[in-house]
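Lecture 7 notes: from sequence to structure.
We start with the chain below.
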Amino acid sequence: MDILERIEKLRKERGWSINNLAMEAALTQSTVNNIYARQTEPKISTLKAICGAFGMTLSEFFKDGESEKESDAEIIRRIRNLSEEQKKALLVILKGIK
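Predicted structure tokens for the same chain:
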């Protein structure tokens, strides 16, 4: 799988549009659009930002298949986006799981 295919796969798994990816990666919309339009591989700095949006490192990005670290990073990223009230409610739920 090439870099663009991997980005596309990860983006679709999250249900993100290209614009969502740009926002999550703190990149301009035109930067991400150009990658898709020109079918070119992103610069390392851009790829690092995209990996950060996906909650993974560059090395995790280049591994084949889903790793536990990827799913852990996704959970952490999602928790960070919760409000304090939502975090407290989630903690109650998690404490109830044995």
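Points to note: The helical segments are 3-13, 18-24, 29-38, 44-53, 58-62, 68-80, 84-96. The chain has seven helices and no strands.
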